């Protein structure tokens, strides 16, 4: 019995229903105790309220008038929209999102203090509403120059380029703020893969255009990627040499082309002209 108790404490909710998907969960999430005897939870895909029984969700859907995340739509391109949700103005939504996200994030501590965060929720929109694909959170004020706290693409939407889109979006916000940024550590394995992929693609494209004649500082100014992240990325691509006490970029065009070929798909582009946003004050 003890062992069973321990086991159920490790992972409580096995599946969730969200919009038209039934999704298997990955990790424990600290839902309020009254939900812990449920194997499955039913989420309203718009306000993210969760329920233990399908009838409760059906009843809820009849009266829930949201058709997209609460907050401001700050980006729309084709069927893709991004909403900015202030955790202080939409506390319950912020908390629901954290409960949901924790099901797929292993190492993150859940933020009860959603007041301090903005949530950027990416949606695919159709005539039924705006369906959440993924999100990232961002501290309103970060001392450590973090421009992203947690990132998630919901499993049914993974490996389609949305993760890199969310990452690119976080750097576009940093550019508008005139700051460099970096994701909060630690990164998960999938998080690291996605960031490495993003950094590699962005830096290689610029190096190719400038034929390698550019400094790490200049790269950082152009991309809002923190200098340390640029250095580790270029080191892993073996494009850095250490000369006279300094790191210098050595970008042989043939080496660049080889890396670019290996870097794979560019992913979904953020069309900056469609971003309507001013930094949080
Ligand atoms: N196996 C191997 N490589 C993968 C996988 C996988 N399952 N998933 C992503 N990658 C790598 C690939 O290199 C991929 O690029 P490619 O498809 O061009 O080869 C790259 O990551 C990014 O792929 P995307 O499709 O853009 O990313 P996705 O939408 O799948 O989202 C994310 C990536 C957000 C990390 C997703 O896997 C996720 O939500 N994971 C669970 C939560 C998590 O770990 N978040 C990061 C925590 S760290 C932090 O929050 C700061
Ligand atoms: Zn609802």
UniProtKB/TrEMBL annotation:
Coiled-coil features, chain-numbered ranges: none
Localization in the cell: Nucleus
GO-annotated molecular function: chromatin binding; histone acetyltransferase activity; transcription coregulator activity; zinc ion binding
Keywords assigned: Acetylation, Activator, Acyltransferase, Chromatin regulator, Metal-binding, Nucleus, Transcription, Transcription regulation, Transferase, Zinc, Zinc-finger
GO cellular component terms listed in the entry, alphabetical order: chromatin; nucleus
Main subcellular localisation: nucleus
Superkingdom, taxonomy of origin: Eukaryota
Catalytic activity: L-lysyl-[protein] + acetyl-CoA = N(6)-acetyl-L-lysyl-[protein] + CoA + H(+)
EC number(s) from the headed UniProt entry: 2.3.1.48
GO terms of biological process kind: DNA repair; regulation of transcription by RNA polymerase II; response to UV-B
First-tier enzyme category under EC: transferase
Keyword rRNA processing listed: no
Family the UniProt entry places it in: Belongs to the MYST (SAS/MOZ) family.
Protein name: Histone acetyltransferase
């Amino acid at each position: 019995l003890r062992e069973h108790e321990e086991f159920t404490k490790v992972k409580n909710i096995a599946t969730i229903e969200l919009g038209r998907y039934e999704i298997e969960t990955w990790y424990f999430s600290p839902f309020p105790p009254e939900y812990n005897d449920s194997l499955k939870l039913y989420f309203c895909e718009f306000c993210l309220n969760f329920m233990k029984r399908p009838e409760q969700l059906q009843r809820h859907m009849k009266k829930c008038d949201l058709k997209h995340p609460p907050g401001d739509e700050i980006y729309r391109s084709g069927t893709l929209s991004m909403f900015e949700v202030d955790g202080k103005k939409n506390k319950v939504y912020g908390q629901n999102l954290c409960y949901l996200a924790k099901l797929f994030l292993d190492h993150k501590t859940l933020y009860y203090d959603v007041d301090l965060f903005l949530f950027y929720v990416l949606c695919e929109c159709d005539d039924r509403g705006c369906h959440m694909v993924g999100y990232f959170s961002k501290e309103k004020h970060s001392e450590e120059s973090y421009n992203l706290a947690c990132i998630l693409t919901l499993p049914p939407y993974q490996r389609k380029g949305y993760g890199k889109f969310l990452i690119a979006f976080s750097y576009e916000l940093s550019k508008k703020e005139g700051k460099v940024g970096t994701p909060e550590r630690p990164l998960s394995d999938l998080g690291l893969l996605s960031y490495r992929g993003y950094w590699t693609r962005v830096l290689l494209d610029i190096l190719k255009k400038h034929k390698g004649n550019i400094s790490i500082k200049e790269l950082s100014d152009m991309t809002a990627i923190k200098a340390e992240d640029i250095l580790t990325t270029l080191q892993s691509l073996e494009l850095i040499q250490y000369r006279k006490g300094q790191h210098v970029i050595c970008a042989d065009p043939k080496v660049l082309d080889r890396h670019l070929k290996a870097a794979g798909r560019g992913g979904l582009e953020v069309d900056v002209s469609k971003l309507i946003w001013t930094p949080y004050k």
